[in-house]
């Protein structure tokens, strides 16, 4: 039996943490198992640390607890040499088209693709739509 899996990029996770209903509604419409990458863990935690420093430790604690609960049932995909090679291919392909996106987005896409997860949920459709073999599921707020 093949299990359908969908990946979330960092923006989708951040929108979920901030209570954006569009993400929750979209996830409820899909039956797939949800996963994220270690890159997303990194990006979300940058925001959490910034919240602790600039807003309050109380808000940080609230968001961190919500974050840990949100990801508790997800598979968190890591990066190794296979993903790095795919990332380099994606980077070169985009550069040859005159398209540049953040390295972290390239790494997220490469991790999903190397794990045979061709679907990504993101509000940043523009960041991912030029990546071959990646089906971008976008949403707006």
Short description, anyone?
This protein is 57% helix and 14% strand.
Ranges where pLDDT stays below 50 over 5 or more residues in a row are: none
Tally of helical segments:
7
Return the structural class. Answer: alpha/beta
Strand residues, percent: 5-15%
Largest sheet: 5 strands, parallel
Mean pLDDT: 94
Helix content: 55-70%
- Any idea of the CATH topology? Rossmann fold
- Tally of domains: 1
Q: What is the approximate shape?
A: globular
CATH architecture: 3-Layer(aba) Sandwich
Order of helices and strands: EHHEHHEHHEHE
How many beta-strand segments?
Answer: 5
Q: In whole angstroms, how far apart are the ends? A: 35 Å
How is the largest sheet built, in terms of strand order? Answer: 3-2-1-4-5
Task: Write up what this structure looks like.
- The protein is α/β, with parallel strands linked by helices and 141 residues long.
- It has a single domain, classed as Rossmann fold (3-Layer(aba) Sandwich).
- Helix content is 57%, strand content 14%.
- It has seven helices and five strands.
- A five-stranded parallel sheet has the order 3-2-1-4-5.
- Helix 1 crosses helix 2 (21-28), helix 3 packs antiparallel against helix 4 (57-71) and helix 5 crosses helix 6 (103-114).
- The termini are far apart.
- The mean pLDDT is 94.
